[in-house]
Amino acid sequence: MLKKVLRSSVKTNSSTSSSTARKISCLFHTSTKSEASVYEDLKTLNPDEAFPWIEHNIPKRHAQHPYEISSLSFNGLGKSKKPPNPIVFIHDYTTNSKVFSTIARKLNYPYGIVTMDLKGRGKTQVTDLNQLYNTQEEKEKTSGSLNLVNHALDFVRLLTYYGLPRAFVVGHGFGANIAYMLMNKCPDRISGAVLINGGYPINKASMADVTQLHEKIASTFASPNEALFLQGAVNSENIDFKSFVEFSKSQNNDDVRLAATKDLRSLEDYAPSLEELIRLRHPIALIRSEHGLKDGDKKPIIDTKVLKSMETTLNTKSVITVNGSNHYNMLFDEKYAEQIANTIDKFVSGYDIHKIIEQRFVDIKGTDDIKAEE
């Protein structure tokens, strides 16, 4: 099934994507030192310097891929044993890969962390993005090549190219829906998922809320950065936030807006229903902020009733609410980021991956109605 999905996607996109998508930017950070010194290394990073993502250029011969991967940041990958089970961060549709820097510096997990800009964000620029859509109606109402399936396939290609058999995924906002797509289409490549302020089941009511939220951001602010600043959502003195802002200046704001709109539209087309979530057997950790987009928002991104529904439906191992936080500052504020990092560390370190995979497919193979386990 997976091979068929990959082949069909490649055939569909190969005729147009090579000329429209220039690159996918990837970031990777790990350590060549011993496991014990990895903990020490990440914990003693210079607090006055942004998290040291390191970029690596992939040879040009791989440009024939539907979406060319042009840079990957890593340290030590290939010089020693490859990380068997890295953490892959997937950002929200209004941000980019650098949004996870503060959490990354607080992780103890020794097996490497990877993050990648979604198409149209960060350094993953798509040439003539507007021209991917033939009519104004298509531009407004269809997701086209920017959708959950293709985003998920980009991450699969990333893992495959570097010979990484599987990974944990951590998705923030829209990134949580990409995590769902990865677990659904490529279950053997995903060890488990941490869903941060996203991934709730989509129906007509919840889709209306998502659309309203996006329109609020799009109509009020000239850019995602301005949204973060003017809402007072993030402490601008945070060194990683400053690095995120500088990195974001390379983005074309019109492209970011259009790509975000397409991603939002793809939720209607591809996001899983509650019934589909029941089939996912991967271990899950759920994290949400207390507030919405900014401090004082009475309605959180995921309300208590929906969170409880997700907890009972999914194979949930832990659930936390980061008290005092909002959708943005939970990623940059030191105390919030540390709470999230500790939750991720505990989650990914708590499972024997081979045993989990073996049991997972015993449970779901050939089964048509599967109820979530406690």
From TrEMBL:
PANTHER family: HYDROLASE, PUTATIVE (AFU_ORTHOLOGUE AFUA_2G14860)-RELATED, MONOACYLGLYCEROL LIPASE. Residues 87-338 form the AB hydrolase-1 domain. It comes from Naegleria gruberi (Amoeba). InterPro entries: AB_hydrolase_1 (IPR000073), AB_hydrolase_fold (IPR029058), AB_hydrolase_sf (IPR050266). GO terms for cellular component: membrane. This is Predicted protein.
